[in-house]
Amino acid sequence: MATHQLTEKAQGKYHYTIGPYTEPVLKVRPGDTIVVETRDAFEGKIKDEKTRPSKVLEVPFLNPQSGPIYVEGAAKGDALAVRIDAIKPRGPQPRGTCCLIPYFGGLTGTDRITFPYEPFIGTIGTSPQIDSINSLTAAKHGGNMDLADVCPGATIYFPVKVDGALLYLGDGHAVQGDGEVCGVAIEFATTTTITVNLVKGWELAWPRLENDKFIMSIGSARPMEDAARIAFADLVNWMVSKFGFEKFDAYFILSQVGKVRLANMVDPNYTIGASILKHYLKK
Amino acid sequence: MATHQLTEKAQGKYHYTIGPYTEPVLKVRPGDTIVVETRDAFEGKIKDEKTRPSKVLEVPFLNPQSGPIYVEGAAKGDALAVRIDAIKPRGPQPRGTCCLIPYFGGLTGTDRITFPYEPFIGTIGTSPQIDSINSLTAAKHGGNMDLADVCPGATIYFPVKVDGALLYLGDGHAVQGDGEVCGVAIEFATTTTITVNLVKGWELAWPRLENDKFIMSIGSARPMEDAARIAFADLVNWMVSKFGFEKFDAYFILSQVGKVRLANMVDPNYTIGASILKHYLKK
Amino acid sequence: MATHQLTEKAQGKYHYTIGPYTEPVLKVRPGDTIVVETRDAFEGKIKDEKTRPSKVLEVPFLNPQSGPIYVEGAAKGDALAVRIDAIKPRGPQPRGTCCLIPYFGGLTGTDRITFPYEPFIGTIGTSPQIDSINSLTAAKHGGNMDLADVCPGATIYFPVKVDGALLYLGDGHAVQGDGEVCGVAIEFATTTTITVNLVKGWELAWPRLENDKFIMSIGSARPMEDAARIAFADLVNWMVSKFGFEKFDAYFILSQVGKVRLANMVDPNYTIGASILKHYLKK
Amino acid sequence: MATHQLTEKAQGKYHYTIGPYTEPVLKVRPGDTIVVETRDAFEGKIKDEKTRPSKVLEVPFLNPQSGPIYVEGAAKGDALAVRIDAIKPRGPQPRGTCCLIPYFGGLTGTDRITFPYEPFIGTIGTSPQIDSINSLTAAKHGGNMDLADVCPGATIYFPVKVDGALLYLGDGHAVQGDGEVCGVAIEFATTTTITVNLVKGWELAWPRLENDKFIMSIGSARPMEDAARIAFADLVNWMVSKFGFEKFDAYFILSQVGKVRLANMVDPNYTIGASILKHYLKK
After folding, report:
1. ipTM
2. Are D283 and C111 in contact (CB under 8 A)?
3. Distance in angstroms (rounded) separating the CA atoms of residues C51 and D45
4. For A81-95, A245-259, B247-261, which range has the lowest pLDDT when averaged over its residues?
5. How many other CB atoms are found less than 10 A from the CB of residue C214?
6. pTM of the entire structure?
7. Which runs of consecutive H residues, i.e. helices, occur in chain D?
8. Which residues touch A46 (CB under 8 Å, ≥6 apart)?
9. Which of A178, A252, A258 has the CB atom closest to B260's CB atom?
10. Does residue B283 surpass a pLDDT of 70?
């Protein structure tokens, strides 16, 4: 069990897309821990309240990712388990950035308001099998899910589609509301510690998440109901295959005690997590 | 301040639709309390596990409503405030009914599982201005929102579109998950106590809800993102008009700390509530 | 076979909603012809280029309907067949009105452009069973479909849900593009001649249309793909039940030679017609 | 003006994805003509009625593309104009393949039915800027649009995002209905002749198409209304920038005489073309 450092400077050639066409920047083994320096989604280009996002940002060169990280032994049909151990602000002057695009600025009139610090990783995923998907889009590989449950204490499971899994992450959020409705959270550079593990022969269709309290399936699609359908259908499948429920019992139970998290309704695909408390999984 | 009884037998002519075409069954004044006997959404027709829903139920004669209740003084442009005081199970043998339609039955194989008792009113609303909307559909008038926050302690605000407001309610749920994914909650007959009040000259576009912790705007539409957009846009408007926020500040703050409840994703319109803790409204 | 006149003045009490709660203004027999004076969707209130729609129009009092027309012998489970015989402009100064709402006006800068005269009836339908649906919305009962194929030579079939069917019509369009994207066609008052017939025991889920060239099923819903799914599924059912196709053959054939008309993408439900040339129905 | 041959064997390394990560297989100059051998979407693996698609096909290795073709001088901000000159069936035994997935087979019971030969190219596009998008998906780069107007006589304009444009094509369809509802057209291998040209400095957001009769903008998204909105908004922009219309005039005119083609409602994004007859563009 080694611990690796992935500095801000040791990035892959293609920062803005998650796919199989890039050489890994780090190789690790199952069980290893990696301390990753992530940059904020604007790559630090918005330095103060006078910076106009429309001047300094250029689509699609947004949301830089750290990686890919190659996990030894990972092969198609496996699942990659990524535990978020810690997320700390990074930089000489730690701070979060938010802006309204294209209405940029505009917040100076607000009385000061204090938000809680509830950090999570907005973008994390493994390489798709043949595509390379920009870092603004969530899909079966994970990606820009903007799901606040991807926080310290959670383990996220991703489908492995290529050798080494090719894990990417970035887009730290200090806090974010359900749906991320203006499209921007409190974006910040982080030092994020993760531990990766491998579940051989567990073939996932979509990402899944687990913490002390619940298990969650994560769907990303448009329209939003399709994201919810994906999430609930996958959660039914999980309850059946791993916890011994009958299919329609699982469906029925979720109808009574299932919970939904709207992760984002602003990215090219919308993301929804459907969950059930672990309490109900014991029979 | 009077207290009224609305028994199961004193129902309006049209049980299955919410609209202006029916004589009121009760007239009350602002501040009055009404104890309403609601029937379950199947009108008690599903008596045991052997009953086939497809045999005893006939669309669209589903989800019977109690009302309309005429509120003296209510006129177009007002808001009706309905506080849910209590929801109790009703009947000689209180119990909840659930079924899968059209897969009816199928639950006998489940080990017994205990659900919490978290009762709420699934369908409640005022009359639309010109339409009469079946009791399975949610829209601007409220209706079949299936929103678990409509529970004791909450006050729901509805637009008044016709004289007397014409309030209807029914469809008690003993518990329900987010989204009500199989389309049926634990349906039960209730004795529900509500207190109605009037806010003169408060013109609402969509229903709103308030409790000790948060304020919430409620949108109903398809696709689901439209329900979420309605809810968030209305919540921004509420924060601006009643709490003194600038429009884009409200938008920004909701992006960081707003919460979303998926009420239902099964009815003709899907319903979403967007909320913010009252804590953030104090400036 | 009688011919009836339904003048502009002989309207029902509720002009702006299609439902069962109104006394018929005319009773006819199957086979009868009715000459209907329809008003334009703005009820003639937009008289010239200086009229501001936002000043003279009041939601939901829009799109006045002529009717209801009671058809003797029509009962739940039947289909009402309405043939459009002719549509003529009406009024001392026949003209069409169009406007952009809320951008009202704005067209004076246009060089003159001549549109073809391709008249059709934008809103036509039978009463729903229990609801009363405003005249701006299309659904299973027909209503505000804005489907350009509802023109002279076409026969439209509607489900009968209440005694007498209760037919309404209005909203003549002199011409309209697919989708009616700005929400307003060339609206005009018409003298429209229709002939009604009854198909006993033909239970329809959604409206259907037939002309010399094709048969068409008509779906109305959101999101738009649901309208298309409804239309194609209904057309498959029609090919199976009336033309002897196997279900999957019909599905396959429509995949190769089916046609789609986007009727409107602006009303509360979007409407799509799916059709197949009669040529392919002969085996 | 040279004519090039692109044989079936001279394919790029990645057949199933359209992106910038592949070496071109052919370099041409603006004005050149290329005769391309395309394979059918199943790569010829479905040989007869006994072949089970679910046995021989493996997602995502579907819909092989010919290319990329590098066009000299093409740079970001240009448009690539591709004229379809001819589409001929190819192979020792030219034939089209269709199947239902996952219901595979099932058509043997059909009486013989003759479909017209109306060939077009289902998938054609230029490389996205940073992503590599699988050949089953349509987006801003074109791709799997399944638009029947991409047929001989049409010129399609694509945004150029990378040096050389990197053009791909494949997925010939002998005929297809609007929406391609079963997901499979009459798929066939073709010899397709195209001529490529370059429009320097014409920055397109989405693909556009032109033929003798009309101009068309092409949107791909979910839900379907978003595809239609993209197409109409882009067509308005085109009418403004190239034909001198005022913005709201264009919007108004399209509302009266615009036409919509539903290309597909089965792929990861749905595709819609919005068009206007050239007749209306002359002022």
Report:
1. 0.93
2. yes
3. 65
4. A81-95
5. 21
6. 0.94
7. 53-56, 224-243, 247-257
8. A53, A56, A57, A97, A99
9. A178
10. no
**CA–CA distance, D29 with D1 (Å, rounded to integer):** 8
| A282 secondary structure, DSSP code | -
Model confidence pLDDT, tens digit, residues B5-47 = 999 887 766 789 999 988 899 999 999 999 999 999 998 888 8
The C-alpha atoms of residue C97 and residue C111 are separated, in whole angstroms, by 17
What is the structure's pLDDT at D283? 63
> C170 falls in which pLDDT band (50, 70, 90)?
very high
| Residue D224 phi, psi (nearest 5) | -60, -35
pLDDT score at D98: 77
Query: DSSP label at B231?
Result: H
Q: Give, to the nearest 10 degrees, the angle between helix D224-243 and helix C224-243.
A: 110
Shortest distance between the Cα of A259 and any Cα of chain B, in A, equals: 5
Q: Using the predicted structure, report yes or no on whether residue B93 has a pLDDT greater than 80.
A: no
Q: Which of B228, B257, B283 is facing A115, going by the closest CB pair?
A: B257
Instruction: Write the pLDDT tens digit of every residue in D15-49.
Output: 899 999 888 999 999 999 999 999 999 988 888 88
pLDDT of A107 strictly over 80: no
Instruction: List C214's β-bridge partners, or say none.
Output: C277
Q: Find where tokens 């192979």 sit.
A: D91
Among B29, B26, B27, smallest CA distance to B9 is for: B26
Of B100, B178, B252, the CB nearest to A107: B252
Contacts of B21 in chain C (CB under 8 A): 19, 21, 132
Q: C130 and B17 in contact by Cβ < 8 A?
A: yes
Q: Going by DSSP bridges, is the β-strand pair B155-159/B208-210 parallel, antiparallel, or unpaired?
A: antiparallel
Tell me which DSSP letter residue C132 carries: B
Put simply, the answer to whether A178 touches B259 (Cβ < 8 Å) is yes
Give the pairing type, strands A33-38 and A3-6. parallel
Cα C18 off chain centre by: 12
Cβ of B130 and C60 within 8 Å? yes
Alpha-carbon span B71 to B76, nearest angstrom = 12
Please state, in angstroms and rounded to a whole number, the distance separating the CA atoms of residues C144 and D9.
Answer: 54
Q: Per DSSP, what are the bridge partners of residue A66? A: A169
DSSP for A33-84 reads: EEEEEEPPTTTT---STT--HHHH--TTS-S--EEEEEETT--TT-EEEEEE
